[in-house]
Every structure is written in C-alpha cells, then in structure tokens.
Amino acid sequence: MSDKGHDVDLTRAKQNTGVWLVKVPKYLSQQWAKASGRGEVGKLKIGKAQGKTVVSFNLNEELTVVDCSGEKISSVRSPREHPFTMQTVGGQTLAVFTESSDKIALEGMVVQRAECRPAVSESYMKLKKLQIEESTKPLRFSQRLEKAITTNYKPVSNHSHNLEYEKRKKEEGKRARADKQKVLEMLFSAFEKHQFYNIRDLVDITKQPVIYLKEILREIGVYNSRGPHKSTWELKPEYRHYQEGQEEEKEAAKME
Amino acid sequence: MKATSKTTNHKQVINSTSYSAVMTSLGSQGSSSSSSTEYVVRVPKNTNKKYSIMAFNAGDKVSCSTWTQARMERDMSNRRIYGEEETQEGAAGSEFGKKQREEARRKKYGIITKEFKVEDQPWILKVNGKAGRRFKGIKKGGVTENASYYIFTQSADGAFEAFPVHAWYNFTPQAKHRTLTAEEAEEEWGRRNKVVNHFSIMLQRRLREQERGGGDEDEEEGEKGAKKKKKGGRGGDLRIHDLEEDLEMSSDESDGSNGDDDEAKAKAKKEKGAKGKGKKKKKKGSDLEGFEDSDDGDFEGLEVDYMSDESSSEEEEPEKTKPNKGEDVPKGIDEMSESEEESEEETKNEEENKEEEEEEDGKKTPVQVEKKKKKDSSGESDSSEDSDIEGEAASALFMKKRTPPKRGGGRGSAGSSRTGSRPGTPSIDNAATSNTLRAAASKLEQGKRQTTVPSSETPAAKRLKMEPSPQSSSGKSTPQPASGKSTPSASDVLLTEDAVRRYLIRKPMTTKDLLKKFQTKRTGLSSEQTVNVLAQILKRLNPERKNINDKMHFYLTE
C-alpha cells in the first residue's frame, strides 16, 4: 500500500505559525467554491469598536448569486455581511496538518477560533426559506402519467434470450468423449489450480459427458460427500502434491 | 487589497506576531470609535494539499514546537476485519468458484460488509522517535456535514487564505506502561474492597507473565525451581483464588482432580465472584490436563496448615467424597470436609494476606517465597496420602529450609502491616499457593512470631496470616501435635481432642453432627474457628470412616 509512514514536516510548526479555525456556513462555502481567478471571495475587516475586536467578512458581489435548482435566475441573494464570533481555543490544543500525495506536513497551531455568521437580513431569510423548501422535498415522489405504458411485457413466442441459448447449444452439440489421456491432462491441470471442484464445473472445463467424466474421476479422485467442501471432487492423496512438480508425479502414480 | 493608511504597519505587525497580538495592536492605532483593516480573503483553488485538524486534549500538554521529529502513518489494524482476507487462493484448500459462490450467498442473505476505507482509519503519530510519545488519532465524524471549517492563514502579502478542513482527528496519547486487560480490570474491580495493596497488582501481573513465559508445563513437584515457576505460572492464570493455585501446584495430575474438587468446594463456600471462579476454571482447564472441570473440586486438598501426617484424613475425605461433592458442595456447608477445606482456604487466605503484605514491601523474592511456601503447605495437606507425598515433602523440606529466613523477614513486616482483609478474600495474592508445609515450616522456625494473634496458640504460619483476622487463629494451623486444642475461651463446652474422641468412641458421627455438638455459642469460637479446629482434631485422631446412609461417618474404637 502507499503511505507507509511519513515523516512529518515540522518546519512550519517550529516557526510557531498561528492560524485561525473558522466555522463557515454551508451555503457560504458553496459560494466560495464558485470563485474565479485567484480565488478572491471577499474581504475580511478586523477592527476595534468600544474596546472589543470586531471581525467581519464581506462577500464579494459576484458571489452572492445563489444557485437554485430549477430556476435560471434566482431572486434570492445570499447576504454579504458576515460578522465573525471569536472563540477561545481553550480545552484543546489544535494543530493543522496537511496531506499531499507524497508527504505530510504540520502547518501550524490554531490560535483563534471563530464562527462566521450571516448578518440577519431579508435576503438571508429568503435564502433559508429556499433551503428548507428544498430539503423537505422527498427524494422519491409519485407522478401521474398521462398515458399508460404499453411497451413492456408484450407476449412473445419465444424470448430472444432463449433463442440465443438454443442456438448456442445446437452449435456445441453433444459433448464428445475425448481421449482419456487428454482428459486426464485437463483434469490434472485444473486440480493444480484448485483443490476442490464441483462436478458441474469440471464438466464445463473439460467439455466431456458427465458419465464419462465421472468414470475417469473415480479413478483418480475422491468425492467428498460431507465436510467443509461438500459434494466436491478432489484428487486422491497419492496424486496430490500441492507444492511443486505435481504433473509428473501424478502421471507416474497413475501409470502404476 | 483595499488598504488604509495604516496598512503597512499592520502588515509588519501581523507578520511577526500571532494574531492575538494583531488584535491588540490594531486597537492601539486608529481612532477611538473603530478602526479596521481590511484583508482580502482568498480561497485557493488549485491546492493539492488536504488540510486536517489534529486535536489534542489540553491536559496532555502537547506542544508541537518541542517536537524534533515526528512520524505519522495509518493504523491498518482493522483491515482484517473489513478486508476479509482470504486464507488461500489457488491450489490446496481452495474450491473452484468459491469467491463467486460466497458473493452470491452474501447477496442472497443481504449481508452487507462495510468497505475498509483507508481514509477513515486512525492515525498513529510517533513523536521524537522510539523514546518519545505515541498518539493515536481517531477520525471524528460529522465534522463536514452541516458546516465547513476553514483554516485562515495569512499569506505574505497580507491577505488571508482560507483552506477547507477535510477531516478532524482527535489525538490521544498512548500509554507506554503496562495496563490491565479488560478481563483483568474487571477482576480487580471485583476485589477492590478486599485488596489492600493496589500497587502489587501490576507487579503480580508482571511476575506472572515472566513466569508463564518461562515454564508453562505441568511438572511434578520435584524441583523447587520448577515448582516456583509453575506456581508463578499458575498464579498468573488463577490469580483470584490462591487455593486453586495451591492445589494445582501441590497435586499433580494424579490428584489434580481431587485438588480441583477441593478447591471448588472451598471456593463455593467462600463468597467468590462466580466469574472469577468460572475464569479460573477455564484457565485451569486450558493449562492443565486431567483436571476435572467442576467447580467443586477446585479446592480439594487445600489443606494449608497441616503437616503431612496429619492431613491424611482430610485427604481421604476429599477423595472419597469427591463424587458426591458435586452435588453436595453447593449446599454442603456443614460437611466436615468442606469445612476443612474452608479452613484450609481460610488459612490460605491468611497466607495470601500475608503475602500481600509482603509485597507491599515491594520485594519480589518474598512474594515468590510466599508463593512457594503456600504451595508447600497446600501440597502437603493435599497429597499427604498420595504417592507423591514424598516428593512434596522433600520439596517442602527444601523450601522449609530456604524460606524461613525470608519468611521471617517477610513475616515481620507483614505482620505489622496486617489489615483485616483476610476474611472474604481467598484471592488476595496470586502468588498464593499457600502450602501447609511451608506454613508448618515457618511455624516451626519462628515459633511465636506474630504477636497480634489473639490466641496464644501455636505460632503457626497460618497464625501469622491470620493476624488480621483474629478469629482464624484459633488453633487452625497447627500441625504440631502440641497445641492440639483450639483456643478454648471461657466456655462450657470445649472443643478438645478428648471431647471429640469421646463422641466418636460412643457412636459414629458425621462432621455435621460433630459440629452440632460444639456449638459456637457454647464454645465461644466462631463457626470458622470451630470448623478449623475440628478439622485439625480429626486429622490427629485419624478416625475410621464408614458410610452410613450415604453419609460419611467417623468413629473410633478403643
């Protein structure tokens, strides 16, 4: 497998890089995904008012268009102002690490946590209403059809599948008894691959009539009627060497 | 980026310090009402790096800056559960078309096996190499479901870059020290009120593991070393009940079953967790062949106090009554043999207690010594009548000689720090295979050692153990004929050898009958004491036995 332990790149960690962890609403992250160019999505305003720091995010104009399913141009716009609520990184020490295809790096520690909230406005309410409507729609719904469907289940004299099957069978014809030696070779090579075989599978492999095949099998194999491998054929112990060089030994054993 | 006049200053400030500093510095500049700076926020699109959060508990005091070297890899230990790796493919043992058949079968029954996703596997983080800390990071679910987390970092040009967080992992430090497994922890929890020295728990476990690694075979008691090992091993398996261990140690395969029965019986009487018993059973079964798998037989032959020659009666009884015991045990508290076993067990407990005390000292040898000692004593009592008595006696003798000095030391300390935890705890020390022989030996050596024992009787080793529990001391442990009597406190009826002899001469009696004769109210002894003393006396008298109405009666003919 890949990824068998990577040494973590600690350069950024040593620099004590600090980052912010910001929780962003889903719709906003969707809008951000639509950003073009370098990826500018808006502006972050950090200020101080009455002794408290105020952070607010302003979404770019072009990104406020909300995609609605089923409508070309929506009248709903996402809000633009998003004040941030700052929180402490109290009971947890949070670090950020990145995984790329070939390495893992520690990017830094979280020094501030924040939540991005939309400024409550008419547009936001409309947006939310839209979202709720969408989410309450059931995935499956019943639909009335104008016309009954008459293209299924027509009666047919013989199904195409059946016709093909019969044609195939005709071509194959009855299985012919091949040379015993050849059959034995086929059997041995099959048993090299697997230890237990169903009679049906052997018939398929060897293309021999069942009775003939069974005769041959009785010579070289044994039938498990019970046990974990029920109703399967396997080679007799003297023919079995499940390491290397079986063919010759089996043949030799058989000859005797 | 829209810049105010103060942007450049801010930029410098930001680049050099953390963001909290930024905040404060901002406040210092600009007008009083509000001053703000604007930064462009970018969400880079082309990054191939996936950001994840590594969360540590604040209490773990993790500081990434102190890490010199770190290594992270996925923990693949769950693969076999999900992956369902096939045992073999091709050639021997495989069937033609097995996979397809299995798949078809699973579809038919609607079995859906979850995929093994590497992405969801926990991380293993190793910091500072081999000697450093280890952490396991488990993925936290539901992080990206309803809201997205972004990491805002400030880039060189003062703009913020936001990266979405892909996954959140909670990292917890992994203990490097040994811990108990769940089963062991449950055991210990059950014993928490009885065990005094909790520090010894891990010590015991370590010892056990060592010894178990060393000697796992069932050896005859011939070799001291072997015995010791075995004892340790047994102790490991059968930690809770020393009696059982004693039995196993002392009685070999030949009387293993006897031992089992006795142990079981004695155990049955004590208030032992059924679970512990079951566990022991299981372990015993696995470890020793030829042992009966009945609860009753566990403590058979658990005769701790008695010298070999005196334990004969006890030996016989357990063996003979073993078949019956199966049914009797649960209710046969009255039966003498059971009471004897109980007494044995008690003594064993005491010894265990003693051992526990000793371990408080933190010495390993005393523990082992104790183990052996216990083993000896039980062995002695158990097999007094068996063919391998000699072997045991011999070993016991060895131990006797060897252990007394240590014993003494241990004793002293133990005695002083005795607690009253003796009564209900057969389990106290794993080591405990209290050996009557050893007890006897120590008794002989030390004479009256532990003084706290209320009864002024023989300074049996048991005595010492019985210290915490004054009740026990009543004459229970004396192998010596000298103090044949139990502590006769002021009472009308004295539980003496003569008294018992008189009764037995007059007519055959069962142990139950005998007990009735010496009622606790009249003799002033507790029921346990009575039982113990009576057992001793019977041993000394060695009465004849007869089965009347399917009950074992004793009688003497003089």
UniProtKB/TrEMBL annotation, chain A:
Domain TFIIF beta subunit N-terminal: 17-101
Membership in a protein family: Belongs to the TFIIF beta subunit family.
GO MF term list: DNA binding
Annotated source species: Danio rerio
Subcellular locations according to the entry: Nucleus
Keywords associated with the record: DNA-binding, Nucleus, Transcription, Transcription regulation
Signal peptide coordinates: none
Protein name listed in UniProt: General transcription factor IIF subunit 2
Function field: TFIIF is a general transcription initiation factor that binds to RNA polymerase II and helps to recruit it to the initiation complex in collaboration with TFIIB.
One cellular component term from this protein's GO annotations in UniProt: transcription factor TFIIF complex
Domain of life of the source: Eukaryota
ATP-binding listed as a keyword: no
CDD domains: TFIIF_beta
Annotated ranges, domain TFIIF beta subunit HTH: 176-240
DNA repair as UniProt keyword: no
Record GO biological process: transcription elongation by RNA polymerase II; transcription initiation at RNA polymerase II promoter
TrEMBL record, chain B:
Claim: Transcription regulation is one of the keywords in the record: yes
A Pfam family reported for this protein in Swiss-Prot or TrEMBL: TFIIF_alpha
Localization (cell): Nucleus
GO molecular function: DNA binding
Signal peptide: none
Top-level taxon in the UniProt lineage: Eukaryota
InterPro entries with a match to the protein in the record: TFIIF-alpha (IPR008851), TFIIF_interaction (IPR011039), WH-like_DNA-bd_sf (IPR036388), WH_DNA-bd_sf (IPR036390)
Keywords assigned by UniProt, alphabetized: DNA-binding, Nucleus, Phosphoprotein, Transcription, Transcription regulation
Main location: nucleus
UniProt-listed GO biological process terms: positive regulation of transcription elongation by RNA polymerase II; transcription initiation at RNA polymerase II promoter
Cellular component terms (Gene Ontology): nucleus
Similarity remark: Belongs to the TFIIF alpha subunit family.
Protein task: TFIIF is a general transcription initiation factor that binds to RNA polymerase II and helps to recruit it to the initiation complex in collaboration with TFIIB. It promotes transcription elongation.
Protein name per UniProt: Transcription initiation factor IIF subunit alpha
Organism listed in the record: Danio rerio (Zebrafish)
